[in-house]
């Protein structure tokens, strides 16, 4: 699918602010794909669709998680996590995206997981560092991302876990698995 066709499908699903974030993730993901030798068209497509389900009603997401046999433990965790797996399902059925690598990059863009593919890493990190993001620590990850993708990913995951701990939020098992996997293989 061409960039403009994909953007045209995503735009009505998002607010203007979230659409600008999506453009930032797209540009960043394509740059990282170029640098690390990933498929640029797949990185572009996954980035464009990564937040496709962000504004779906909670009830609709909950129903899909139950009926489409997504991991049931998602329902015990914060609903912020749901738009990633639900998005992977919806872009397949509503936008006709069937590439499993692209779908997985969307599916795991919020939690991460153990053994992430290059494409999954790129979308996860691009989501965190796109130019519109301004939280503390982002500058460090921005620099790291263009030097060592795995270290940037580790920093992103550990920052996210720290943030969740401070807010007394649950840590989804895949998020912890992503962290442990990187610590074991990279440090
Ligand atoms: O959709 P975005 O805002 O672009 O970013 P995202 O999909 O990466 O993350 C959305 C939120 O999900 C973010 O505030 C952090 C939160 N999150 C990520 N991992 C976990 C999590 N929340 C909980 N409770 N547990 C997690 O493991
Ligand atoms: Fe997201
Ligand atoms: Fe993310
Ligand atoms: Fe995002």
Automatic annotation (TrEMBL):
Signal peptide: none
Residues of the HD domain: 18-132
Keyword match RNA-binding: no
Xref: InterPro entries: Diverse_Catalytic_Enzymes, HD/PDEase_dom, HD_domain, HDIG_dom, YqeK
Gene Ontology molecular function: any one: metal ion binding
Database matches in SMART domains: HDc
Documented EC number(s): 3.6.1.41
Keywords: Hydrolase, Iron, Metal-binding, Nucleotide-binding
NCBIfam families documented for this protein: bis(5'-nucleosyl)-tetraphosphatase (symmetrical) YqeK, HDIG
Protein name (record): bis(5'-nucleosyl)-tetraphosphatase (symmetrical)
């Amino acid at each position: 699918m061409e960039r403009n066709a994909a953007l045209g499908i995503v735009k009505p699903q998002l607010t203007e602010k979230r659409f600008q974030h999506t453009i930032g993730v797209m540009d960043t993901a394509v740059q990282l794909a170029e640098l690390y030798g990933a498929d640029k068209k797949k990185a572009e497509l996954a980035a464009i669709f990564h937040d496709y389900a962000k504004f779906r009603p909670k009830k609709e997401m909950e129903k899909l998680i139950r009926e489409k046999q997504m991991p049931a433990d998602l329902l015990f965790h914060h609903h912020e996590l749901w738009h990633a797996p639900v998005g992977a399902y919806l872009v397949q059925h509503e936008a006709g995206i069937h590439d499993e690598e692209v779908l997985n990059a969307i599916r795991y863009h919020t939690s991460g997981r153990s053994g992430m593919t290059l494409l999954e890493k790129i979308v996860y990190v691009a989501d965190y560092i796109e130019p519109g993001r301004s939280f503390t620590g982002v500058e460090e990850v921005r620099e790291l991302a263009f030097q060592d993708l795995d270290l940037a990913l580790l920093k992103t995951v550990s920052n996210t876990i720290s943030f969740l701990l401070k807010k007394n939020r649950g840590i989804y098992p895949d998020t912890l698995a992503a962290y442990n996997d990187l610590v074991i293989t990279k440090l």
